[in-house]
Specification:
11 helices; three-stranded mixed beta sheet; 3 strands; mainly alpha
Length: 364
């Protein structure tokens, strides 16, 4: 390949170095813009799916609304928790009165402590009873806050008597005593049950409402993020355009020889790199059909900015291609000299319409 040089090597080197520096900045910012666009699209799709895309407002207003919503939710949650705790204490007090009546009954003594399986010789007790329970254990857990609801306490007290009924013969005294206490428990429980059901329903409703509030907070958060991203995207895009203008101002006019060498170099690109080069042209020229099967690229009509971007890209691409080609003979034990010679042969494809890759390109 013929070196891409200018009649003034020093000025060419300075310009190329400036372009490479600007290219890195442009590529970095472009990548960030693309990332932000994806995030904005994600937020927009979220609202489009819900059918509730919010109107545009200022970022400050959205942030205030977001923080106020979060603060209000925290206050509401704290109030609900305090109210629920108070109602639970009231129910626990009511059940404690029932529990006290049961434990003070004259027949409650066999059930106040765990069954002494070993001393009583009840070798099959744990085979019959899956979950042993006693009133003393229930009372201890009530005092230490081991229960989350009144229904849990009732279930354990009921289990004490159901275990006794299950294990002992129906004519045994313990069996009869357990049935009697269970009947009293059920009678008292039925009186308290409506309040328990009411509280359970209330808690379920509050939990549902909390989920609704969370979804609302999510919507507010997405709205705030969307506006912030949109603003940031706009600012970066504006900076990118300004940077492109600076690049154009820095770029000198390409000479005829520069353009000829650039056209020659384009025809030596791999199909993949050729597509990337055409994409660079299309970025500054929306009417250019980079994806067409046959492309006519008029070097003379391209802006200096596009030409310098192409030059830097082609230089890097051909450098990588040359390095890859140099490694093949080493791996295969081929003739390095012959390969290098072929790589240095110039191409006159600038004036010819047909270097065929995956797509056909002709430079005019």
């Amino acid at each position: 390949m013929e070196p891409m040089s200018s009649s003034n090597p020093d000025s060419r080197s300075v310009a190329a170095a400036e372009v490479e520096g600007f290219r890195d900045s442009v590529d970095e910012i472009s990548a960030k813009v693309n990332t932000l666009e994806k995030r904005v699209n994600e937020v927009e799709h979220y609202y489009l799916r819900k059918g509730s895309l919010q109107p545009t407002t200022s970022r400050e207003k959205d942030r205030d609304k977001h923080f106020n919503t979060i603060k209000k939710q925290q206050q509401d949650a704290a109030r609900r928790e305090a109210a629920a705790a108070k109602r639970m204490r009231d129910l626990l007090n009511k059940f404690s009165a029932i529990f006290k009546q049961i434990t003070q009954h004259k027949w409650s003594w066999p059930f106040m402590s765990p069954v002494d399986v070993e001393s009583l010789g009840l070798h099959d007790y744990y085979q019959v009873i899956e979950k042993p329970m006693d009133l003393g254990t229930v009372q201890s857990q009530m005092e230490t806050g081991g229960y989350k609801s009144v229904r849990e306490i009732y279930a354990d007290v009921r289990l004490v008597f159901k275990n006794a009924i299950k294990y002992n013969d129906d004519k045994d005294d313990v069996h009869v005593m357990a049935e009697t206490l269970l009947e009293k428990l059920e009678e008292k429980w039925l009186q308290l049950l409506p309040k328990v059901v009411e509280e359970e329903k209330r808690q379920a409703d509050e939990e549902t409402q909390a989920q609704v509030d969370m979804k609302h907070a999510e919507e507010v958060a997405y709205a705030s993020m969307a506006k912030d991203l949109s603003s940031e995207l706009f600012e970066i895009d504006k900076y990118l355009k300004d940077l492109k203008k600076v690049v154009v101002q820095k770029c000198r006019k390409m000479s005829f020889d520069d353009k000829r060498r650039l056209g020659t170099a384009l025809t030596q690109l791999s199909p993949e790199d050729l597509s990337k080069a055409l994409d660079i042209v299309a970025q500054d020229n929306p009417e250019f059909q980079a994806t067409a099967q046959e492309v006519d690229l008029d070097i003379d009509t391209q802006s200096d900015y596009t030409l310098w971007r192409l030059k830097v890209f082609v230089k890097d691409a051909l450098k990588v291609k040359a390095q890859a080609a140099a490694q093949i003979p080493e791996a295969m034990g081929g003739n390095k000299v012959a390969t290098s010679k072929r790589n240095r042969e110039p191409s006159d494809a600038v004036a010819k319409p047909a270097v065929k890759r995956t797509k056909k390109i002709s430079t005019m």
